[in-house]
Write the structure tokens for this entry.
Amino acid sequence: MKKLLVLIILSTTLLHCSNDDCGDPNITYQTFTFEIVDKISGENLFTNGTYLPEQIQITNTISNFETELTFLSENNVNLIQVNSASWETDIVNLEFTIADILIFELYSDGDTIVEACYSYTVFNDIFINESEFDYNAEIAIYTILVE
């Protein structure tokens, strides 16, 4: 009888639990945001008309699929934000071309952090090849310097 009572109490407790106990995870997801500028003048190459947003192609070289992006344009500042690089595999290996010209390559590996109700990726080593760049940690933007 004691075992039955414990089983009933345990079952009732479990039935009253819900996923709502998790609440909002309050996670800041790491994104990759880029500004493409002329190395000598410092001008944004989209703002000055050298490139057009529709000429951007970001390819995941692991899967060979095009990666989604958001083109952010505000106050004459034009940025490229990667929507989903490879969050599910913890490895990002992207090739950025604009007007069929290779601008740079991005490689990063990360760790998946698993919490009680959610998971997210923290990227560790980040490498940018084929182009010089600056990184502003305060606003989390990589400025790619194009010759």
Observations:
- The beta strands are 32-38, 56-60, 65-66, 69-74, 77-82, 91-98, 101-114, 119-129, 132-136, 141-146.
- Residues 1-19 have pLDDT under 50 and may be disordered.
